[in-house]
Description:
With 194 residues, the chain is an alpha/beta fold. It has helices at residues 16-29, 77-83, 104-107, 117-124, 133-140, 146-155, 162-172, 178-193; strands spanning 4-11, 33-39, 48-56, 71-74, 93-97, 127-131. It has a six-stranded mixed sheet, with helices on both faces.
Amino acid sequence: METRNIIISGVGGQGIITASEILSEVALFNGFDVKKSEVHGMSQRGGSVVSHVRFGEKVYSPLIEKGTCDVILAFEKAEALRWVHYLKPGEGIVIVNDLEIIPNMVSLGLDTYPENIEDTLKRVASKVFVMDGIEIAKEAGDPRTANTALLGALSNYLPFSEESWIEVIKRRVKPNTIEANLKAFKMGRERGRE
C-alpha cells in the first residue's frame, strides 16, 4: 500500500494530539507501519498545533513533504488554510471544523483574519467538507469530544473498519468519557458520509 499522509491541525486545547494518537494507534491496530510528528510550541496560549501522521507498508520519516498530503483534518478554519499547501494538488481532501478562533493579533487590530477561507480551500483541494464538530460534540453529551467527531468524518476516507476505531477510542479516552466519545465519533462518521 502507498503511504498515506494526514495532517491534523488546530489551536492548543482542541485535542489535536489526542486525535493524532488515536489515528496512529488505529493504523498500528490494522498492521501498518506508522510515524507521527507534532509541533505544539505555544499551544497552551492558544497557538497553532499540528501533527503529521503517516502510515503504510514501510514509513521512513514522520514528516509530510509539501504537495504530498492526502487529507488535512483541521479543527479551525484558518489552521486549514495554514497547511493547505501541503495537499496533493487536485487530489487532497480537507475536512474542517466550522469554527473561527480569532487570534490575539487580530483582536488587537494588528492583523486580519483571512476571508473566504472555504473558497480558497476549494481551489486547491479535490473535496472540502465543513462540519460543525462542536455542535456534534454537544449533541453527543460532551463539548470536549469535537476532536472525536472530526475523526469520525475522517474515518470515511481511510481503510480502517469502524470496529477498529471504536476499540482504540475505548482504550485512549478517559473511562468516564467513552460513551460520549463513541457517540461523537459515530455521529461525525455519519455526517461525513452526507
